Amino acid sequence: MPLLIVGGGIMGLWAAVKAERLGINALLVEAGRLGDGASGGLLGALMPHMPDRWSDKKQFQFDALVALEKEIAELEAETGLSAGYRRCGRIIPLPKPHLRSIAERHERDAGGNWVSGERQFHWHVGDSPSVAGWVDEAAGQAGFVLDTLAARVSPRAMIALLAAFLLKARHVRVAEQCSVLSLDPDGGRAVLSSGNEALFGHVVVANGPASFPLIRDALGLDAGVALGQAVKGQAALLDAAADPAMPVVFLNGLYIVPHEDGTVAIGSTSEDCFSDPCSTDEKLENLLAEAYRVVPSLARAPVLERWAGLRPKAVGRDPMVGSVADHPKLVALSGGFKVSFGIAHFLADAALQVVCGHTPVIPSGFRLQEHVSIASRTLESSD
Ligand SMILES: Cc1cc2nc3c(=O)[nH]c(=O)nc-3n(C[C@H](O)[C@H](O)[C@H](O)COP(=O)(O)OP(=O)(O)OC[C@H]3O[C@@H](n4cnc5c(N)ncnc54)[C@H](O)[C@@H]3O)c2cc1C
What is the percent of the chain with per-residue pLDDT over 90, rounded to a whole number? Predict the structure, then answer.
């Protein structure tokens, strides 16, 4: 019986690519077009967590960020396409004096924790930005950090790269304009929007924010159980003719991401409450104004696109992967929230290990069971 993958965003596409590499027969169904969700956005920052207070979650993300470079290079060689990936590093201005001593502690933490075999990544602290003519010196009154682990990718080029690989797949088929309406994981059946049923051996549920109610209902949980929520984000793309080698800039939630084609993406708002998931408004304009202050050359750049999308935030705040004991055929692959592009390839590996009957080594907070327990406790305490 084939594997069914629900959702053609960054999560579902990596799952499909990994299924192809393992020779697993699979069908990926996407409600609209591939990349129609948040994965078809603009930003593509690949940001490490802070190097202090090291944990299995930080180690997982670090290993994923290091490995992504090679995984993308392999797909690029196989397809002849580019994902617009570059380990460009990240500049973090330090606007207040107390942030300098914290950053200097992080410099030492990175020395011990940001090591992969022979490779050492750094968190340098200095008095000026590491490159001239990019970030305004005034933005970092107490200095600047240069992190050499951060990278970026073009989200749309990444989706196109994964899709192109799947075009030549022997084991995986992709069906667009096809929604899964409901799942019976124990019977191995999915009801599709076409009115047909799809039979499956396992189902990987990777349909972004819509995965939370789909998984809840498939597991037979109370309708009040919220396994996660959608968090809106707005971003913009500037025609900046920027040097693509420039580092990403990060300051208080503002991301400035120079891309390979000279465009620069600016993001992102983070909105729990919203009426229209797709609209942009003055919150984005405020973000643009802040970006112009930090990188003044951007103020002259025409805005090519304003965009908004919904991030999948799981109830436990961590990614949501794997199955629960009573319904082993349903495998979650969701909840990447703000960091999906850096870890989706590793999470997809974990999901496929579950499909193959193995227990993946992932942080316990990532497990679907953990999220179900948190959501059930939350419901009980609100009753
Ligand atoms: C403004 C903004 C900026 C961001 N910046 C970054 C960043 O810099 N770095 C980073 O790593 N992440 C970033 N993110 C987060 C990232 O985009 C998301 O975490 C990621 O795209 C989620 O991927 P996904 O595959 O889980 O879900 P999605 O991309 O939402 O994909 C799910 C897919 O499932 C389909 N679908 C839905 N329901 C069904 C159904 N019933 N049947 C079939 N298909 C269905 C949808 O059409 C969609 O294509 C950002 C997000 C936003 C909004």
Answer: 98
C-alpha of residue 318 to centroid of ligand 1, in Å:
15
Q: Tokens 């396994």 — which residue?
A: 227
Which residue minimizes the CA distance to atom 35 of ligand 1? Answer: 7
Cα–Cα nearest to 258, from 270, 236, 242, 274: 242
211 CA distance to ligand 1 middle (Å): 11
Q: What one-character-per-residue DSSP string does 207-262 give?
A: -GGGHHHHHHHHTT--TT---EEEEEEEEEEE-----TTSPEEEETTEEEEE-TTS
Amino acid sitting at position 244: P
pLDDT tens, residue by residue, 192-243: 999 999 999 999 999 999 999 999 999 999 999 999 999 999 999 999 999 9
Q: What whole-number distance in Å separates Cα of residue 370 and Cα of residue 132?
A: 47
Name 383's Cβ contacts closer than 8 Å, sequence gap at least 6: none
Nearest residue (by CA) to ligand 1, atom 25, is 9
Ligand 1 mutation pick, 278, 288, 311, 320, max ligand atoms within 8 A of CB: 311
Q: How far is CA 270 from CA 39, 135, 152, 204, in A?
A: 16, 24, 20, 27
Closest-lying ligand 1 atom to the alpha carbon of residue 333: 26
| Closest listed residue to residue 351, CA positions, set 54, 45, 13, 83 | 13
Tokens 């970026």 -> residue:
152
Half-sphere exposure of 37 (CA within 13 A, CB side): 26
